[in-house]
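User: For my dataset I need records formatted as: sequence, then structure tokens, nothing else. Please produce one.
Assistant:
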Amino acid sequence: MAFKHQLILWAAVMLAILAAASASVGDQCVPGLVMPHNPLGACRTYVVSQICHVGPRLFTWDMKRRCCDELLAIPAYCRCEALRILMDGVVTPQGVFEGGYLKDMPNCPRVTQRSYAATLVAPHECNLHTIHGSPYCPTLQAGYGVVF
């Protein structure tokens, strides 16, 4: 009798795991579902301030905290995608281009901005996990992504 209950419990656990996995596959990293349409506004300000030396230089710790809070609110498996949208933008299902706010600036090329944005999840910045198993977002490194 105990074996039958263990088998039913095991089957219930397996079904719960499968249901959770299939639920997350359908909405993975889709702006508007698991993350905002234009994620990481505070990170945009922080990157430009740190790399391009444009905008407020006071209270850098507060800008960093706000950026890290925004990244923390996004599921770990979508953090690099949110950073990619910050850099490259995304076309919504309605065909509207959103994001991609960081552009080439005098003495501040996009490739430098991308490299810095890739490390926002690193221990010396926000110390957050991603699905890549590395302390940065490799898809944001030079040579990746779309340039608009």
